[in-house]
């Protein structure tokens, strides 16, 4: 069917966008991070890590449920919280903004992806997935993974020392691309014709538009998160306001 070739073309196009984004928006060499000495923050992260592990291990149906994009996103968030706890503990004596290490840059990119994608997952679930399948059980775990996690990430964002940057655009686009490719491969092999979401079905007439639209909307939420970052550093104490200098939008970046 023509839709199959069109979806392939969309995937190639998005892959090209990933390469362009990674080259066009590099992380500034002098990127800094505000200190995170807060005992509340590390306690908050530890509590969430425990909650997420209980959710994933006891109520999500792993490993089968890893076919769902929601569970991908939720798992990445759990990894972020665990990593952030370790990073915060190692730098607990820092009291001033400092240039980020390689690990710090990767962790910040990781947060950017989790933070921006969580809004999209929440929106798609409540406006597309649930209306098309009203039989979905809205238990506490479903609500946690499709709404509660967004609230928790907003709190994390408000208290951490990180700035969402345009340099994460390539990775934000890469995540749905990889998911789409693996879902298609799974459909043709071990999943035996199963699509996790109806709009992923490459035989549907609107599938090329869905694939392209979902990938591009990821970037919209990233730049929305960048806007929230600018707001964040306007209301945070002056002592850490220098971090706002690292919030780069496309016009601020350089090749």
TrEMBL record:
One of the Pfam families matching this protein, by short name: Far-17a_AIG1
Subcellular location: Endomembrane system
Gene Ontology CC entries for this record: endomembrane system; membrane
Keyword terms of this UniProt record: Membrane, Transmembrane, Transmembrane helix
Domain of life: Eukaryota
Listed InterPro entries: ADTRP_AIG1 (IPR006838)
Topology class, membrane: Multi-pass membrane protein
Chain ranges passing through the membrane: 6-26, 38-60, 66-86, 106-126, 138-159, 171-190, 210-229
Coiled-coil zones: none
PANTHER family, per the entry: OS02G0130600 PROTEIN (PTHR12242:SF22), OS02G0130600 PROTEIN-RELATED (PTHR12242)
The protein, known as: Aste57867_384 protein
